[in-house]
Every structure is written in structure tokens, then in C-alpha cells.
From TrEMBL:
Pfam family, one: TetR_N
Keywords, comma-separated and alphabetical: DNA-binding, Transcription, Transcription regulation
Domain HTH tetR-type: 12-72
DNA-binding region positions on the chain: 35-54
UniProt keyword NAD, yes or no: no
Superkingdom of origin: Bacteria
Protein name per its UniProtKB record: TetR/AcrR family transcriptional regulator
Amino acid sequence: MSSPTRRGRARAATEQDIRRTARRLLVEQGPDAVTLRAIARELGITAPALYRYYESRDDLVENLRLDVCADLAAELAEDIAVLPDDGMAQLFAICKGFRRWALTHTKEFTLVFASPTGGVGTTAGSALHRLDEPFGRIFLSAAGQVLATHDLVMPPNDVVPPELRDDLTAFQSELLSVLGESGRAIAPEKLDLGLTYLMIQFWARLYGHVTLEVFGNYPIPVSKPDILFEAILTDLARDVGLYSG
């Protein structure tokens, strides 16, 4: 009975070594450096030996992506743990924490949030699209509390482009499920298409600004980027009726 346990421990340790090496290559050289051949060379083993643990490079990268998402969620959870149970305060702390993490973990950000389909990661922004993963859950838990405790300025359903309604309806169902699991259940009638559309726009604007800043692609030189980001958050809050100043 002890032999399989020992083998299991050895396998786990080896998988941990592989992922640790992959993470180091990612941080030091970027997503393109994360190859089975490079990892095998670093570990002093043959590349085919890695196939005992991962079916392909894509399989390994997906596991690495999940590790990065979990670490990001843990960092954000620490940020909000010291805050009062105030959805708005927590949501904007998460936004600020996400930007801080992105600027200090640019290679991980590239892997998780800015790698095209079929490349070294997944579709841009997919960490939020996968709502049941740690980052999606922590973001939506705070957003759910805001929805439950604030009267938001919601666009009417008829302003939602008809071509988007099927996609938003599917996303709406996922949101309700994840919010319920997070303890932030929202009445289905409150989370209508207009509000779902609003949430997508909120994320798109946040993600777009952070991405431009991470890659140095903002259209003008900005000498005080922190002030600009605070202004962006204030505008987002004002647009949804959370701030009237």
C-alpha cells in the first residue's frame, strides 16, 4: 500500500518541479520560452519524459495559466481581507490590485490575459470569462455585492444590440450561477440584459486600460499614470451611478 503513495509523492514533486521551472522561464524570458525542450534541458531530463506528466505543451501551459490565476486571486483576496464588507470598496480595491499585479507581473499577464487563441495561452481576457476560476469568482463576488446593495444606472434592455443578446443571455446564466455559489445571489429579474451588458463594458474598459498601460501603448505620454487610473475608476463608478461627485 505504501509503494503507490511513494510514487504519488514522487510524481507530485516532479510535476511541481516542472511547473516551477516553466514559471521561471515565463518570468525571465516570456511565454514563448515555455517549451517542453527548454524545461527538460533545465531539469536535466529528456523532453519525451515530460509526456508522462503532460499530454502536450498546451496542457502544461494551461496548468501554468491556472497556477498564475490562483496566485493572482490569492493576492487580491489579501487586499480585500482587511477591508470592511463593502462591495464597492472591495470591487475598486480589486481593480487597483489587478492593475498593480499586471504592471509587476507583465509576463504572467501576457500569458493569461493577452495571448491569442492557438498561441501560448488562451483568448485575451479569458480569466474573467472562465467565471468559475479564482479570479472570476473574487471579481464577481464583489460585483455581486454592489449589485445587491446599490441602485445602479442601468441601460434599458432595448439599447443592447440585438446581435449581442444571445451571447449576453448565455453569460447572464453563468453570472447568476457563480454569484449564487459565491454567496452573492442576485434575483434573476435584477440581472437583466442591460445590467449584463453594463458589466461586460465595465470589464472591457478596465482590462483595456490596464493592457495599454502594461504594453506601453497608451496614445499619449502619461507622467502620472496612477492619477489617470484613479480618474478612470471614478468615471466607471459615475457611469454606473456609484459616484455622483
